[in-house]
Amino acid sequence: MWQSAHQLDPYKPLPSVNPPLTVEVVALDWKWLFIYPAQGVASVNLLEIPQNVPIHFELTADAPMNSFWIPSLGGQIMVMPGMETQLNLLANKAGSYNGFSGNISGDGFSGMAFTAKAVPQDEFDAWAASSASSTPLDAAAYAALAAPSEYNPVATYTLADTGVFGSVIMGYMMPADTAMSMPMQMQ
């Protein structure tokens, strides 16, 4: 049992000839934000990934504790405000996979679902390039996005700064009165 448990470690990188793609995930009230720092884009309620490429997720929450889950790809992991966790998954076949919140988190929980879409690498690259011309995700856009809302449609953003994920975590690392008086700082 000990050996099997360590083989399934969610932090353990997956073996592959392809380098991993990092996707930062933020659980919000009641939607999922996926940030692709290397591509300079982000999406809401759509996880677009290249097939046969290991995906290294870095996850947190900017809302109540939640659970990130794509049953067909394996792995369910809890996310909490101010904490970072990791998960490694791989989609061997192209297709659309259902993703969910596996933790009841309030009124909008039932609509907190997303599509994980595995596509060939060239389709992923085209999606990332077309998303780069969408609405900028800056501090004001993030604040609006972080507000509670239900059944959010898919949306894409251009990253105004790649430090959004780190800023979300750091927002929980200082006293509330200090954090509230500071503008959102993106690295």
Q: What are the SSEs and their pairings?
A:
Elements: H1 2-7, E1 21-28, E2 31-36, E3 41-44, E4 46-50, E5 55-61, E6 66-69, E7 76-79, E8 85-89, E9 95-101, E10 113-119, H2 121-131, E11 135-137, H3 139-146, E12 155-159, H4 164-170, H5 176-181
Parallel strand pairs: 1-5, 4-10, 11-12
Antiparallel strand pairs: 1-2, 2-3, 3-12, 5-8, 6-7, 6-9, 9-10
Please name the defining characteristics of this protein.
seven-stranded mixed sheet, alpha+beta, 20% helix, five-stranded mixed sheet, globular, Immunoglobulin-like, 187 residues, single chain
Report on the architecture of this protein.
- The protein has 5 helices and 12 strands.
- It is α+β, with helices and mostly antiparallel strands.
- The chain has one domain: Sandwich (Immunoglobulin-like), CATH 2.60.40.
- The strands form 2 sheets. It has a 7-stranded mixed sheet, with helices on one face.
- β1 (21-28) and β2 (31-36) form a beta hairpin.
- The protein is globular.
- The N and C termini lie far apart (42 Å).
- The model has no long low-confidence stretch (mean pLDDT 87).
